[in-house]
Amino acid sequence: MSTNGSTSDMTFPPDWHTGPDDSFHGKITKEGPFQPEKDRYHLYIGLFCPFAHRANLVRKLKQLDKYTGIDISIVKPYPKDEPDTPSKPGWRFNHKEESQYEGATEDKLFGYRYMNEVYFRADKSYKGKYTVPALWDKKLNTMVNNESAELLRDLQTAFDELLPKDVAEVTLYPKELQGEIDTVAGWMSDHLNTGVYKAGFAPNQEV
Questions:
Q1: Which pLDDT score is estimated for 185?
Q2: Would residue 197 show up in a list of annotated catalytic residues for this protein?
């Protein structure tokens, strides 16, 4: 399946992006279309978002910014939606037509104003949520993955062959602790990570 002109001759795994309502589930592998290469990928995040934070933490702890050139663009924490805009474009970047928010950045790849424009670049018919984190492939000009848990697992080992030996040996998901990590991660997602959004989008104090 392909979604834009630059990927028309590329074969993608069937579960990468099954349609406009689906998220993106690509993996960085030597055997697939998204191969581990330097200066090829870009990560979109929001500093307010626990889900995006953990993808960025892997990027820093595995030094992917230094050794693989994975840079980041950072959306502003507000406003997520415009009440008077039917399409509700979602998260915004620092843009010449926007107020500037300290800690956010411009869209370093395309100069877009809204995160939804990045999604529509990957799939012009996309109908899902315009979330962060999202990993972009600059070579194929499309979205690799926008599922935080999948990126968390993938990024910690996907580029090891490009890293110095001591950095590649750093593991954030040791086998002997994987069961415990999965249990804690599930609890954190339900009670802490999503709590940020429940509080942030609550219509009143009672909620």
A1: 78
A2: yes
